[in-house]
Design brief:
The chain has about 375 residues and is an alpha+beta fold. About 35% of the residues lie in helices and about 20% in strands. It has 12 helices and 12 strands. Strands 1, 2, 5, 6, 7, 8, 9, 10, 11 and 12 form a 10-stranded mixed sheet that branches. Strands 3-4 form a two-stranded antiparallel ribbon. Helix 1 packs across helix 12 and helix 3 runs parallel beside helix 5. The protein is globular, with a radius of gyration of 20 Å.
């Protein structure tokens, strides 16, 4: 088991292309597997080789919020707030000095940053909006939510490609295990924004990255040719096990092991032959007391990026883990995807299945591993 205090999952909230709601909505999406990746509608992609995305219906999450109270918040802050409130309400958790918050994001609020600096380019200093500026900083989502849910313990914002969400959950579990918080709301968020999407497409970082295969999200497949972006926010409530039991919380699953670290490689590369000398996945399995061969499932971070998919499969094979399953075709690549992997593993545990490994690896070498199982 993890050293220190034991950590359990007691709530979920999600805003994704597959729907908005708590545990029931996440479970339904995983069961029904709706087709969410489709031609982009939010902005013009004429002349762009990439045209697909998993978009969130704004009306779905706005129906969860008071329009007047969020009228000055950016779109990504609204998604974050909606998902966090869903998770907290489901867990029946109250705020206070022992509630923390960890937010992971790949891109943050790029839309507000662009609006702020476009104002300067159009009108000079007079065009710099003091109303928009607070949203240009990377921790704006965490700041808004911490106030809204009265989270007064540690507030952490993480920027990391590919694994932002699962890394946020791992960091939250560590905060609780170390006694720095009694409960932590942890998750990830990103939104689709034209400048980011079109720039990544021009860089050849989105499907179709090359070859003759059509655009699409096909992780680990022989014809995988790049990721398809998604958007949304998914957050979990993590709590110290005895505190959750004392207040009668419904426990979905336990975080049996959590580890993260970096494999030294050149930035933005994913060398399939590079080994993990820090043994991050094996460390998480060791904390959980679980053998790789006894895992019910591995939820991997494969998103269709050929170099990254191949590297992940080699790393997992070296740890004795095979046939990872990706959720990227259901939700698209975004900061909340890693949290949805953890949520899927928690639902497996609640259904009585053996522990699952939630694994992630990003270009640049950041690797995460969580082992999720039934709460003892």
């Amino acid at each position: 088991m993890m050293s220190g205090r034991r950590v359990v999952i007691t709530g979920m909230g999600s805003v994704s292309a597959a729907g908005a709601g708590g545990t029931a909505v996440v479970a339904e999406a995983l069961e029904r597997r709706p087709c969410t990746i489709a031609p982009l509608q939010a902005f013009d992609v004429d002349g762009c080789t990439s045209r697909l995305a998993a978009e969130v219906d704004e009306a779905r999450f706005m129906a969860l919020l008071d329009p007047d109270s969020v009228r000055r918040l950016s779109r990504i802050c609204r998604m974050t707030l909606a998902a966090c409130r869903l998770a907290v309400d489901e867990a029946g958790l109250e705020g206070g000095a022992r509630l923390g918050l960890v937010v992971g994001s790949e891109f943050g609020d790029f839309r507000s940053g662009a609006e702020f600096f476009d104002g300067f380019l159009r009108r000079g200093p007079a065009g710099l909006s003091p109303m928009v500026f607070p949203s240009t900083v990377m921790n704006s989502m965490a700041a808004v939510v911490a106030i809204a849910i009265d989270a007064k313990a540690s507030s952490v914002t993480l920027n990391q490609a590919t694994v932002a969400g699962d890394l946020a959950v791992a960091r939250a579990a560590a905060l609780i295990a170390a006694g720095r918080a009694e409960a932590v709301v942890a998750g990830g968020v990103d939104e689709l924004f034209s400048n980011v999407y079109l720039s990544l497409a021009r860089l050849g970082a989105l499907s179709p990255m090359g070859g003759d295969a059509p655009e699409g999200c096909r992780p680990y497949a022989p014809d995988h040719n790049g990721p398809v972006l998604g958007e949304g926010a998914t957050f979990l409530v993590l709590e110290e096990r005895e505190a959750a039991r004392a207040r009668g919380a419904a426990i979905h699953a336990e975080v049996l092991g959590a580890a993260w670290g970096a494999i030294p490689v050149a930035p933005h590369t994913a060398p399939a032959g590079r080994r993990d000398k820090r043994a991050i996945a094996r460390r998480a399995l060791g904390q959980a007391g679980v053998e790789a061969g006894s895992l019910a499932r591995c939820y991997g971070s494969g998103n269709g990026d050929p170099a990254l998919d191949d590297w992940e499969q080699r790393l997992l094979a070296a740890d004795g883990v095979r046939d990872p399953e990706s959720l990227a075709p259901l939700f698209g690549q975004h900061g909340g995807l890693g949290v949805l992997r953890v949520a899927a593993a928690a639902l497996d545990a609640r259904a009585g299945r053996a522990p699952a490994l939630v694994h992630g690896i990003a270009r640049g070498g950041c690797r995460t591993a969580l082992v999720i199982g039934q709460a003892a």
